[in-house]
Amino acid sequence: MTVAAAAAHDDHGPAKGIKRWLFTTNHKDIGTMYLIFSLIMFFAGGAMALIIRSELMNPGLQFVHPEFFNQMTTMHALIMVFGAVMPAFVGLANWMIPLMIGAPDMALPRMNNWSFWILPVAFGLLGSTLFMPGGAPASGWTMYPPLVLQTGDAFPFLIFSVHLMGLSSIMGAINIIVTILNMRAPDMWLLKMPMFVWTWLITAYLLIAVMPVLAGAVTMLLTDQFFGTSFFLAAGGGDPVMFQHIFWFFGHPEVYIMILPAFGVVSEIIPTFSRKPLFGHDSMVYAASCIAFLSFIVWAHHMFTVGMPLSGQLFFMFATMLIAVPTGVKIFNWIATMWRGAMTFETPMLFSLGFVFLFSIGGFSGLMLAIAPADIQYHDTYFVVAHFHYVLVPGSVFAIMAGAYFWLPKWTGHMYNEAAGKLHFWLSTIFVNLTFFPMHFLGLAGMPRRIPDYSTQFADFNWLASVGAIGFGLSQLVFVYVLVTAKKGATATDRVWEAPRGLEWTVPSPAPYHTFDTPPVKRVHEEAFE
Amino acid sequence: MIQYKTTSVWGPQGEQSMIRKSFLSLLGLISASTAQADWALNMPRGVTELSAETYDLHMMVFWWCVAIGVVVFGVMIISLIKHRKSTGAEPATFSHSTSAEVLWTAIPCVILLLMAVPAAETMIRLEDSRDPDVSIVVTGYQWKWHYKYQDEGVEFYSSLAKPSREARSKGAGIDPFTVENFLLDVDRPLVVPKGKKIRILLTSNDVNHAWWVPAFAIKRDAIPGLVNEAWFRAEETGTFRGQCAELCGKDHGYMPIVVEVVEPDAYQAWVETRNDSGAQVAQTETRP
After folding, report:
1. Rounded CA gap, B157 and A118, in Å?
2. For the ranges A10-24, A212-226, B203-217, which has the lowest average pLDDT?
């Protein structure tokens, strides 16, 4: 009934032409823009990854100079972290959180518009550095001084683009918190919220807590470079290690910012295709909160080689190992959700299962890295590269893909091409492992990361990884095909899947421009509440 | 378990760099795997007590991960096979179990404790750099290392060896497979005595570097304005190789580390030869 009212209210639909996108305050339009932006960045960052992997395919320098190689590793990371993964999750949040909690829109729609439109500007600034004297930033996305201070004309552009990305993230996070805390349907008390909403609520708090820390750190770099301060310069009484502490105080929660919403997406999908409610909903919430808390007290495990006091090393080792506990709880709950269900394996489920398997492998290598004496051997080698790509690519990116396939029929009103979706999944899974699994061996055998060339005994696995990377890149074109043909499939029902739960499945497909003008009432949508 | 000496980058290297010729064909891949030089899968065990301990820790955690993986993935695979709609499975309706949650929180805690204790013990030993026999100040430069033996009056720079330097640039036209120890050889290696406690004091002249020799299980950052400590006691003679492990600019990949571990007598003799021409060596052999 509310839905019918919403449809009648559609008299002021979207504006026409470019103005619709420039001035929109509609959470669905903004969500779409975030998702498209993130896909473009995914391909831009991917192209850089392919430059890196092409150069590393064989020993000796074939294509690029070391300077440019370092620019590529730096830009690839910045673009993938801030341009692809984070905006993709914000896009999913924009689209789905209001639909999941029965809200008409995000709480702060104009700020929503602004937080999106800052991003193209930020990445315009960052991308322009490729054409500057001295080239793009080449000191790694971690921007450690004193090396980062050797950046050429790109330096202030790097700093300001990071500021803008942070601004965008903070505004997005405020919006999500305000929306979730104030605009839920009357009967949806906090512990009834879907897991995707819960994980995003926690993520948003992490963002607000740490993005200003990053902004502070890069501002200190800026003043060290241009205004004569010595925060990080030993010659002036500063401390280069302090930057690393501040950066990783941001950086470690940042990795959970990129994985908690992924946990949320997977927690929506696995119950749907297991035809069984999510196992241990409340303990999942506690586990996610616990991970978020721990993320603030483990940062120096990125720094076991900088020369900390023994007690510091032991503390950070123990705290880091503890993260395995709540993360394990999550994995066990997903498996308990599948247990004695009636599973089917549509594309979103395939990507979610791939996520559980492969993210776990990243978790195992994470546990190995937590062991400080062993980490001294692993640190800054390809073992670390393998680890964080396992949690980010078949982790975060697979969850984003899963979410995209899961909700695509709700967005477009049509079923996507299932055969192409499955092909996309299988190709991605095969190639992602071919790319990143050999990197474990490379790291253990002693290949440092961020080197443009390597000794000949590393040649075989590097060749294999490069083949995998090219395959993975090409496989993503299948996803583009699915998107281009997304509206050609059969008409989607409101519920789309056989047994979905949640308010988003009570609105028509495609979701009308305005939904839930009046809040849904529990007795109307009884089944939508868990 | 001293296979590393001939099979990995860390030990003395000989023919293996050239074994692998045709790697683009599948045939090449298979034949290369028999040579053992390539396709190295695991961490070297190293030649110090602590590198062996580190290796054992690494393997212990690895086997724990394998065990947990077998159980977790095993249950998941059984579920994927048995509980599918196409086999006519009816979904159950259970959605929580407090005892299960307690159990799978408690068991990982116990396993973690079993890992944490030996890890902490090794960590404590790693940090104990008291009473060294030889102290060497290692200074990182963009892009070479400088070594200064504190009490012996020997100091010199150590940079990438000439054959690698000639072959490294783009369009050099030299096949890296024909260069012995490509990118892992230096003009002047660090020489240390076997069985003595060597303390490394690390700092940097410009940006952060990291001094890493896997066979000694040492990796420590060289940071301008700070002095870091690390130590090792090599139990075997030989040539051990490592690389800079902290991004330090464009030639980060071209500042290898080579350590020659020799018998104490030979070391003493080496120190004396270096001492005679010490001042001269330190000055004239610097390369840009």
Report:
1. 49
2. A10-24
Burial of B95 (0-12, 13-18, 19+ CB in 10 A): middle
Residue B57 structure tokens: 């820790």
Residue (of A307, A309, A325) closest to A370 by Cα position: A325
Chain A from 404 to 443: CB within 8 A of any B CB = 441
B159: helix, coil or strand? coil
Q: Residue B13's closest CA among A453, A457, A377?
A: A457
Q: How far apart are CA A174 and CA A208, in angstroms?
A: 7
Q: Which among A325, A353, A380 is the nearest to B246, CB-wise?
A: A380
Q: Rounded to whole angstroms, how far apart are CA atoms A36 and A38? A: 5
Q: Which long-range contacts (CB under 8 A, 24 or more apart) does B24-31 make?
A: B24/A463, B29/A460
Chain-chain contact of B245 with A461 (C-beta, under 8 angstroms): no
Best CA proximity match to B136, nearest among B199, B193, B196: B199
Strand order in the sheet with B209-213: B190-193, B256-262, B238-244, B209-213, B218-222
Residues A463 and A56: beta-carbon distance below 8 Å: no
Confidence of residue B16 (pLDDT cuts 50, 70, 90): very low
Report phi then psi at A414, rounded to 5. -135, 150
The two tokens of residue B265 are 């007598």
Q: How far apart are CA A299 and CA A296, in angstroms?
A: 7
Closest residue by Cα to residue A219 from A154, A266, A169, A159: A159
Q: What share of chain A is helix, strand, coil (3-state, %, to 5)?
A: 70, 0, 25
CB distance A146 to A240 below 8 Å = yes
pTM here is: 0.91
* Torsion over CA: B244, B247, B248, B249 (sign): positive
* B17: closest chain A residue by CA: A456
Contacts of B64 in chain A (CB under 8 A): 367
Concatenated DSSP letters for A315-345?
Answer: HHHHHHHHTHHHHHHHHHHHHHHHTT--B--
The DSSP output letter for A448 is B
**By three-state DSSP, how is residue B219 classified?**
strand
Which pLDDT does position A98 carry in this prediction?
96
Q: What is the pLDDT of residues A51-87, one digit of tens each?
A: 999 999 999 999 999 999 999 999 999 999 999 999 9
Q: CA angle, corner A141, sides to A390 and A177, nearest 5? A: 75
3-state secondary structure of A352: helix
| A311 in B contact zone (CB under 8 Å) | no
d(CA A68, CA A52): 10
Q: Is 50 exceeded by the pLDDT of residue A153?
A: yes
